[in-house]
Amino acid sequence: MRLKKNLLALAVLSSLAASAPPAARAEEPTPADAPPSPEDLLGNIVVVAGATRPLPRIAVLPSSSWDEEDVIMRSVARRDLELSGEFEVISDDDSPEEAWGAETLDVSIWAKKKVEALVEARARPVPGQDKVELRARVYFVRNGAAAVFDKRFLIPASDLREEAHRISDLVIGALTGQNGGFASRMTFVAGVGKLRRVFTVDADGHDPKPVSPTEEIAVAPAFGKGDALYWAASAQNGEYRIRTASGQAVDLPMKGSVYGLAFSRDRSRVAVSIADGGTIKMFVGPDFASLAPASEVGMALRPTFTPSGKLAYSGEGRFGQRIYVEDKPISPDGLFASAPTFCNHPDGVRAVFAVGVGKDTDLVSTDERGRGMVRLTQGQGRNGYPACSPDGRLVAFFSTRTSGEGPGLYVMRLDGGRPKRISTLVGDSLRWDPLPPGRGVEMKNN
């Protein structure tokens, strides 16, 4: 069946269901040439035990103000520290009673709670101006009440949440040696049937917003040059064409529906999956007007770029769908592998992708060449469409799990530890990108 007869089916190729593509199927293998089962390929690999690693115990100091700005600043900082997976953040209920309303910091009362570090996150409106002053301090309990980190910023009031995330990233850096990645945003597609819309959401799950029209079927959103949001959409059963958030259609030098879209991290290259006869091919160029064929692999979908700028995607293998980096497969043949992403983790680049396992889909991780495979999820429904945080330490993904917090959008450490749900929405085609530079101005401390 030709692709134009399967527009909606192909729009969700490489989805959470572990099934072969509906078009351009390979011939069924003979029994002697049958592929191994996914479980045979994964062997005895189980979920990595990152959740058991003890974490530093920290606390966020209670708020000393009733200003809404202060409440927002503290709540954002606390949430980011919890989601980072780098710390055990003690609950407010476990904070010393003497700390609430205290005018001065007494680290001894926190030492009794076995807290190693304290975070102070404050905000106050500037009288007579549409500005807010943000301040963050970090204290190591063993060092007493002398702050080891102290920063102040003056920001536009409308940028409070965005700048609060930037402060959180700096605090994470003060505590770990590397800044966090929460000054960022995600985009994805959610919906079923003919109601599939592009959404954006903050990195902590705040304020999910649909941005594509209801009358179009949307796929493959990605942030591109100028931090503009692009996606492909079909209206009235027409071809999937690239659209922008301003409503403009982007013309390409070749015909065919678009089913995948990605930009390199520096936005100097763009990759597009385009229907060509009975298959889908990959094209790459410095811009949409200068696309050229990039691969001979069929059914080339879900393009992405590695941290070093290499093109990666999922495409046809002998027995199913494989992950390719510059036309070299890095996933085993026989696994239905989809949706690759590459995390520039402090311990080295890791590829994360989804694999079909029976009726479920799990996330696995390898190095950039496919070595050292580990399993990040197991026995928890369909988990797919991973996306790496800008700092490389977290991976976001959609899950249909019914245990724990239930189905939704999750973030977890790259070692598989401490998954936390940030939204009840379940979708596909997830991307996670840093925000453009902020407007805050650093102030000198008094």
UniProtKB/TrEMBL annotation:
GO terms for cellular component: periplasmic space. It holds the Pfam family TolB_N. InterPro entries: 6-blade_b-propeller_TolB-like, TolB_N, WD40. Gene3D superfamilies: TolB, C-terminal domain, TolB, N-terminal domain. It comes from the Bacteria. Residues 44-144 form the TolB N-terminal domain. Residues 20-39 are annotated as: Disordered. Keywords: Signal. GO terms for biological process: protein transport. Residues 1-20 form the signal peptide. This is TolB protein. It comes from Polyangium fumosum.
